[in-house]
Amino acid sequence: MESKLPHLGTSIFTHMTGLANQHNAINLSQGFPEFDAPKLLKQRLAHYSEQGFNQYSPSSGAIPLQTQIANLVKRKYQLEITPADTVTVTSGATEALFVAIQAVTRPGDEIIIFDPAYDSYEPAIELAGGRAVHIAMQAPDYAIDWPQVAEAINDKTRAIIINSPHNPSAKTLKASDFKALKNLLIRHDLLLISDEVYEHIAFDETPHISVLKDPELFARAFVISSFGKTFHCTGWKMGYCIAPKLLSEEFRKIHQYVTFSSFTPAQLALADMLAEQGGHVDELADFYQQKRDVLVNALQDSRFTILPSEGTYFLLLDYSAISDLDDMAFCEYLVKEVGMAAIPLSVFYQNAPDDKVIRLCFAKEDDTLVEAAEKLCSL
């Protein structure tokens, strides 16, 4: 059988986690929390399952959860939405991204993405018959070159995908970025997919700028969010997409044939969790900033150059003062000889620069972060 994605194999996350397990290494490669979901969330999950809420929910989402998402959007971004028309609950943010890409991409369309890019974007574009147009961001700033974006737009361009806070660079888009983005979208009548799964994890008292805060941007956008990232429950695979009514209608046409609906007891548990206004969601940035600072402080005596982490739960390190190995070889060396697993940044590029940069995940217990840093400081 001829493969539809012949150039894809085992993901870097599977590869590095497998190596970490094989060598009993500390795993700061794959982006999942080492700690558990909130107690209230687990209690409510058990409650709804015990009470018999175990059948299909509506395809667009359980009404209590849609309502609480709309309440969260109003509180965080001062946008009033009609949840029945605009909020679709999905089986993880990756499903939401896949469905949004299928909804906008026609055969021959070009979709602009920014490298280093989350690895699910391009396969979804290719499966829809489109082509990903890669625009590279450069270390150490990982800033978008908007004149270069303008040059890349042509009559085949259909949409732009942005991600802020950004995985893997841990950078955030600024007001000037959104101004440039909006000018291009309006001038060329393009759609926007905004991957905001780390929206509640922005640091140093600098609020996340959401597309939901700008009516002109939101009018042509799919905004993707993740409960797994927000509530430390990545294994639940729960996310959602917010889009204007007409775009949501197109999104739901495809969503109903991908998963139809998502895990009902979890939806109701998440609705109860969101009803606790403030609390966990509002404390998340401080929680992860503390963990970022633990890792950064523990690495101060290392030979790595630490790149600023403005959001997400990732930290980039430049190892050029330590080794001439390429980043894949260096990460394999770290696992096998140092006992610590990281991710090479080159895997997130179409044409990787010769940067000596690796990504660490600090969604771990403080003791784990300190132990990992001690190993890195030994280099």
UniProtKB/TrEMBL annotation:
InterPro entries: Aminotransferase_I/II_large (IPR004839), Kynurenine-oxoglutarate_AT (IPR051326), PyrdxlP-dep_Trfase (IPR015424), PyrdxlP-dep_Trfase_major (IPR015421), PyrdxlP-dep_Trfase_small (IPR015422). It comes from the Bacteria. Pfam families: Aminotran_1_2. Transmembrane segments: none annotated. Residues 25-376 form the Aminotransferase class I/classII large domain. GO terms for molecular function: kynurenine-oxoglutarate transaminase activity; pyridoxal phosphate binding. Keywords: Aminotransferase, Pyridoxal phosphate, Transferase. GO terms for cellular component: cytoplasm. The keyword Transcription regulation does not apply. The keyword Transferase applies. Its cofactor is pyridoxal 5'-phosphate. Belongs to the class-I pyridoxal-phosphate-dependent aminotransferase family. This is Aminotransferase class I/II-fold pyridoxal phosphate-dependent enzyme. It comes from Thalassomonas viridans.
